[in-house]
Structures are given as structure tokens and as C-alpha cells.
């Protein structure tokens, strides 16, 4: 019996996301979404400890005013439980790419 893959329903790159944080391993497309910062930060720390040798990343939505698209901005990374903040993080791929490419692993969480 196969399990259905769940994705966050983001239809376009310009759609305003209902989440404030996207958490994933650097080498995985699957992700966790959070509305509250504390939950996202705890998940990044936990993932970096339980997934040995992997980097966990916390992305914040960033709105590009020229293209009118929402992108992910990797502001926190964690390795072996140590979290680092990048106040000059550049915007990465658009959020629609992340949510369409991977599986949403915590769809039961309350979003905004």
C-alpha cells in the first residue's frame, strides 16, 4: 500500500505563503513548514543532531519586489546541534520550487 505524498498547496511563485519558515536538510527536497519561529528553530537543531553528517537549513520567505515572486532565504543553518545565523543571506530559489519538489512532512501543523 503506497502512502500519498503531501505537498503544500502553492500554485504560483507570486502566491503569498501562509507559513513563515521552511525547514529541510540541505541534501533533501522534503520539508517542514512552520508559522512560529521557536518550532522551526527547534526542528533545525533536532534534525542536525539526528541526521548525522547533514546540514539542516531554515528558510524565511523573501519577497522580490522586482519579479513579484516569493523566494526562500536561508537565514539559519545547523550542523551537529550548532546553529549559525547569516544576516546577509541571499535569496535562493522561489518557494514554489521547494514546496512542489518535496514532500510536506508536518501537514498537521497550524499555519497562519
Provide the fold topology.
Blueprint: E1 21-25, E2 32-34, H1 37-50, E3 56-64, E4 69-79, E5 82-85, E6 91-94, H2 95-101
Antiparallel strand pairs: 1-2, 1-3, 3-4, 4-5, 4-6
Brief characterization of the structure:
With 112 residues, the chain is of the alpha+beta class. It has helices at residues 37-50, 95-101; strands spanning 21-25, 32-34, 56-64, 69-79, 82-85, 91-94.
Task: Give short descriptive properties of this protein.
112 residues; alpha+beta; six-stranded antiparallel beta sheet; 6 strands; 32% strand; globular
Task: Give a verbal description of the structure.
It is built from 2 helices and 6 strands, in the order ββαββββα. The chain is an alpha+beta fold and 112 residues long. The protein has one domain (21-101). Strands 1, 2, 3, 4, 5 and 6 form a 6-stranded antiparallel sheet that branches. The longest helix is centred in the middle third of the chain and has 14 residues, at 37-50. The N and C termini lie far apart (33 Å).
Helix content: 10-25%
Shape: globular
β-strand amount:
25-35%
Span of the ends, CA to CA: 33 Å
Number of strands: 6
**Quick check: average pLDDT?**
93
What is the number of domains? 1
